[in-house]
What we know:
By secondary structure, the protein is an all-alpha fold. The protein contains ten helices and no strands.
Amino acid sequence: MTNFLTILKNDFNNYIKYNILHIVIAISVIFAGAMAFVTNIDAMIFIYITVFILPTIIFSISIYIEKEEQTLLPLAIAKCSSLEIILSKVTSAMLLLLIPFVLYSLVMVFVLNMTINILLFFLVYVLGSIMHIIIGLVLALISKSTQIMSISYIGYIVLFALIPFFYANNLIPKVFQYILVISPAYLSGILFQEIYYGYAFSSTFMIIIAVILQVLYIGLLTYFVVRPYFKSYLLYAVEKNNE
């Protein structure tokens, strides 16, 4: 628990140092204001960007910068396990993402006067956010340079993160919905639509699949990609700079 809290505190110090906290607050305020006053734009767009794109980009960049500056070196050689480090960093990222969640919820309830189940919205928000925080970690792990990282972002956003936008606007036929389950963003989008709009977009089977597959993707990526390669990823920068 001591290591967990130490890493958590270190993460928030870095969020302030790298202006990540300021960026998240600024985006949250702008998006919440747009949701409240720009009524001709579907508010779900802001939620999608916050959950599908924001954590993937910001937190993978954070990890990449920390690796390059070797501020994560103590974590790499610490006695705590990779899983403990990963859990603490995902927790700190999730706590940061609660800022837009609170603002969006306040706008939906008190400004838009929506009848929405806040608890279900919170659970879907957390599940989707954790999924994309893990994806951000994976993108950081496979990126040996800023160029590769940029290409990885663009590839993920184009191939996966934009799918819910197209599907929500009926640009993708429903016949393809079982093929699109390879996209974590699509799975999360299914759940958000059900809660936000308040009526059935998908079958009960698809809703269950959306939950199960997201949990499965989180587990598989964490166990087979993030956990085994996280410390070696950190130490790679140290060995590279010592050459």
